[in-house]
Specification:
A mainly alpha (105); B mainly alpha (618); C mainly alpha (225); A: 105 residues; mainly alpha; 3 helices; 74% helix; B: 618 residues; two-stranded antiparallel sheet; two-stranded antiparallel ribbon; 16 helices; 58% helix
Chain lengths: 105, 618, 225
């Protein structure tokens, strides 16, 4: 990174890191607390993934500096995310769309 | 920066092995003496992309030859089931060929390993590891790959993965027998050779992943000044997309390989269904696994893998067609977009290999649709190649013969894939010889012929000498004719219902009777194909010292590897000075120009009058 | 963006000649892409790792939706919730440990940007210690499973649990190796080429944060759902 960040910029970043750390700690507690609510599977899944995505987004965005990254990196990650999404979607669809068979693995 | 220590331009035999050096040993003196390199540093642990490319190339050619030998053995059994193979048959011992007669278990080993070796140890390392490594940095004007040490590590991963695969023949009960596809549950209960297959695959996948990271970074970061994306030769685009496929499609197979290893070694049940009975007894595993899961994970890679097999070949053909028609490639932009689209689509078609697994009609329709759509960019690419020939001043050089031969052969291969992509026609054809005919047409008279074309084309780059033309023509005609002799009858047999992977070639089935005689014809074609390779092998080694010397730009080509680097290129840095690029890659026969080619790095008021105008950064 | 002048292939810093390769953009960023080579390389590598863990996760999903119950029969008993068989408090602690190690890792890099080598050593050392802590807690978890004869072969739930957490743990070990190298012998580069060394720590950090990221998704999906 040929960045010309000054010492002041870095100190600003450090403040952000600490805020993110705090948020991650809180969200971790929330994750576990939500689990003990014993929600039915679909709301539980969506909520858990949502919280995980927020946490992951914080790590990726601020610790990994993705919020200020370059286009070429965004492109690579975008393409990867697309293929990951298709992999999940199609695996699940392929499994669910079996007709006339008992859905035992 | 200027690279002072130019290699002597004398075309010595030693040029096949580049003198190389570790740049880390240089301090301020980058261009004076290169530190004296021992044999190991120079030839075995080199970090120079050209040496590594040659390492990949020679190793891969050995594996292609070995894999071919495996199938020549198989073809004896198919042509003359149950008969002893004279002389050679006695070399294999009683566990494989007692009395010279092939056991079914050995036949299965040969089949599984033929496929594995040809795809993963032969074609990909040659197409990507060898051609990609050697040519891509040169064509983009870079001194080397972005990560030379990683490059070396990739080669060694490949090499040792290959050793493991070969070693698997010698363990009790021999090598993997469950096909190159290693389907569960058979692969889980098979003998030790299957474990070695899995471990070997993990090495090979790692090699490809490291290579892909290197290729992508190199192409994005190390293009010379003026080399925008849309001035890159199509060969580089092809390698670019190929590397993306390797990067993103291989990891799920690596994951699956780990899972299958755990099934085999730790008795887990990722792929083992409940209640499986083996040899009359219920298997003592937890069950609850899914054999279909293996298929999904395997084909998620293996479908993009087939585009890994074809794209570099298309890249090679593109270079040779432009050069030997003395006109620009037709539809360069269209080709690039088609290739990008092809790469993307290749990730969402895989289950057309699984139409007979009982999938539902909706998901089946989805995969049929995407499979039909993906044929469009392939057709566009092939059509653009054909149109490129129109109005060209065709030079029938040996590389051009192979490139021309590729075109109709890939056409047949591609067209015969269409019935396989539609479920109603796939269901009777699945697992028959029709499938084998289809994919061999694309890979053998398709890709392999393109790779031969590349060898004839770039041999002068690496050695400063051409391969002999007469031997080349004999090689070409023999290869073309006998490849068709092997693979065309497979369509006929497949449509008659003859299954693949049958140890007797279908002889046991009455319905195969009308088409069984083709087996002998195909086997004889295979052995004659082997004979046709002899002129090539002789040519390859003899021409190192005896080949006709060529100028640095042996083919009057426009791309940087020819116009800006000597033959062979300078050992440390490739170019005397980093080239500047002023125009697109195929400025042949520019109206008003004195000669019929204008290299990319040729300076002067570079107002190209060709339709491909100077592009800025994409 | 179009033509540019290539920067000198070695960029002297602090007037010290640098024994770098002639490969451009090893330290300075390429102007039109805005990144240096290793940064692009590591993101590409992480993309492949996303697909690796993604493949395992999709295997998990596939097996789970095909299972009549989940976690299902383990050791003769029907287990209905993962937290009945897995140690959630210990895993929660591990989550915090790993997140903390991510913070110390990024602080290590920030210290180098602020030219404070001593602080770098401190933070990197803490990162490595935290990573060991993670592994120790994991070992306790695994040990307790094994002592109850709960092996991967026992059920598909346990199989995918051990595989996902095991592969993750292997990545933690890899991170420890890399980070230890940069804490120890590799840190010599700070004296000769501080810019490139800082970049290397940034790269190592990206890998380490990714390891944390995987766990952030792994923890709820395996332990809590």
């Amino acid at each position: 990174m040929s960045d010309t960040a000054t010492a002041e910029d870095i100190r600003k970043h450090v403040r952000v890191y600490m805020i993110v750390f705090g948020s991650l700690a809180v969200l971790t507690v929330v994750t576990v607390a939500v689990a003990y609510l014993d929600l039915p599977i679909w709301p539980a899944l969506i909520l858990a993934l949502l919280i995980a995505t927020v946490k992951g987004g914080l790590v990726a965005g601020y610790f990994m500096h993705l919020v200020s990254e370059k286009k070429v990196i965004y492109w690579i990650l975008g393409v990867t995310a697309a293929f990951l999404f298709f992999m999940f979607l199609l695996f699940i669809s392929a499994h669910s769309d079996q007709e006339g068979f008992a859905l035992v693995a | 920066m200027a690279n002072g220590a130019k290699e002597s331009t004398a075309h010595e035999a030693a040029h096949l092995h580049e003198e190389t050096s570790s740049s880390l040993e240089h301090h301020d003196d980058h261009h004076g003496h290169h530190a004296e390199q021992g044999f190991w540093r120079k030839y075995i642990f080199s970090t120079d992309h050209k040496v590594i490319g040659l390492q990949y190339g020679l190793t891969a050619l050995f594996f292609l030859f070995f894999g071919f030998c495996l199938v020549m053995l198989m073809r004896w059994q198919l042509a003359y089931p149950g008969e002893a193979l004279p002389i050679i048959g006695n070399l294999f011992g009683d566990e494989r060929m007692p009395g010279g007669v092939m056991l079914p278990e050995f036949y299965n080993q040969l089949g599984a390993m033929h496929g594995t070796i040809m795809v993963f140890l032969g074609i990909v390392p040659l197409a990507v590891g060898a051609f990609g490594n050697y040519i891509v940095p040169l064509q983009i004007g870079a001194p080397d790959m972005a990560f030379p040490k990683l490059n070396m590590a990739s080669y060694h991963c490949y090499f040792w993965g290959g050793v493991i695969m070969l070693a698997s023949f010698f363990v009790p009960a021999g090598a993997a027998k469950a096909g190159w596809t290693s389907y569960a549950p058979l692969s889980v209960i098979e003998s030790m050779g299957q474990t070695m297959w899995l471990i070997g695959m993990i090495f090979l996948i790692t090699s490809s992943l490291l290579g892909a990271v290197n290729f992508l970074t190199t192409i994005i970061q190390l293009r010379a000044p003026g080399m925008s994306f849309f001035r890159m030769p199509f060969f580089v685009w092809a390698q670019f997309v190929t590397s993306f496929l390797l990067l993103l499609a291989f990891p799920p197979l690596e994951a699956a390989g780990v899972l299958q290893l755990m099934d085999r070694l730790l008795d887990t049940s990722f792929f083992m269904p409940s209640g499986l009975v083996v040899s009359g007894e219920v298997l003592d595993v937890s069950g609850g696994g899914s054999p279909i899961l293996w298929q999904h994970l395997f084909w998620f890679l293996a479908h993009p893998e087939v585009y890994v097999l074809i794209l570099p070949a298309m890249g090679i053909v593109a270079e040779i067609l432009a050069n030997n028609t003395r006109k620009p490639l037709w539809g360069y932009r269209l080709l690039v977009y088609a290739t990008l689209f092809l790469g993307f689509m290749s990730f969402v078609v895989w289950a057309h290999h699984m139409f007979i697994t009982g999938m539902g009609t909706s998901i089946s329709a989805f995969f049929q649709l995407t499979t039909m759509i993906i044929s469009i960019p392939s057709v566009i690419i092939l059509s653009a190649f054909f149109i490129t020939l129109w109005g060209g001043s065709i030079r029938f050089t040996t590389p051009m013969l192979f490139a021309l031969g590729f075109l109709p052969m890939f056409g047949i291969g591609g067209l015969t894939g269409l019935p396989l992509g539609l479920a109603p026609t796939d269901i009777p054809l699945h697992d028959t010889y029709y499938v084998i005919g289809h994919f061999h047409y694309v890979v053998a008279p398709g890709t392999i012929m393109a790779l031969f074309a590349g060898i004839y084309y770039w041999y002068p780059k690496a050695t400063g000498r051409k391969l002999n033309d007469m031997l080349g023509k004999v090689h070409f005609w023999g290869t073309l004719i006998f490849m068709n002799g092997i693979f065309f009858p497979m369509f006929i047999q497949g449509m008659a219902g003859v299954s693949r992977r049958l140890y007797d070639g279908g002889a046991i089935y009455d319905f195969a009777e009308p088409v069984i005689h083709y087996n002998q014809f195909m086997s004889i074609s295979a052995w004659l194909l082997a004979l046709a390779q002899i002129p090539f092998i002789i040519n390859f080694f003899l021409s190192i010292k005896k080949g006709k010397e060529t100028p640095d730009n042996a083919w009057d080509a426009t791309t940087l590897e020819w116009s800006a680097a000597p033959s062979p290129p300078i050992a440390h840095g490739n170019f005397a000075t980093i080239p500047h690029v002023y125009r697109g890659p195929y400025e042949y026969s520019v109206p008003g120009a004195e000669v019929d080619f204008t290299p990319q790095d040729e300076p002067e008021a570079a107002e190209s009058t060709s339709p491909v105008t100077a592009e800025t950064e994409v | 963006m179009g033509d540019y002048s290539p920067p000198p292939s070695h960029t002297p810093i602090l007037s010290t000649p640098i024994p770098t390769m002639e490969i451009p953009f090893t330290v300075a960023a390429r102007p039109d892409t805005g990144v240096y080579n290793a940064k692009l390389g590591v993101w590409l590598f992480l993309a492949s790792e996303v697909m690796l863990f993604g493949g395992l996760f999709s295997a998990y999903v596939f097996l789970r939706i095909g299972a009549p119950e989940w976690p299902g029969m383990i050791d003769g008993e029907m287990v209905t919730r993962a937290h009945n068989i897995l140690n959630v408090p210990l895993a929660t602690l591990n989550t915090m440990v790993l997140i903390a190690s991510s913070v110390t890792m990024v602080m290590a890099w920030a210290s180098l940007k602020l030219n404070n080598f001593g602080k770098y050593k401190l933070y990197m050392g803490l990162t490595i210690l935290a990573a060991f802590g993670f592994l120790i807690i994991k070992a306790i978890e695994y040990g307790s499973k094994f002592s109850h004869h709960l092996y991967p072969s026992e059920s598909t739930f346990l199989a995918i649990y051990f595989t996902l957490t095991g592969l993750h743990a292997l990545h933690v070990i890899g991170g420890i190796v890399v980070n230890s190298y940069f804490w120890g012998p590799g840190s010599k580069m700070w004296k000769t080429n501080p810019a490139q060394f800082t970049n290397r720590i940034e790269i190592a950090g990206l890998y380490w944060h990714f390891v944390d990221l995987v766990w952030i998704f792994l923890f709820p999906t395996i332990y809590l759902l």
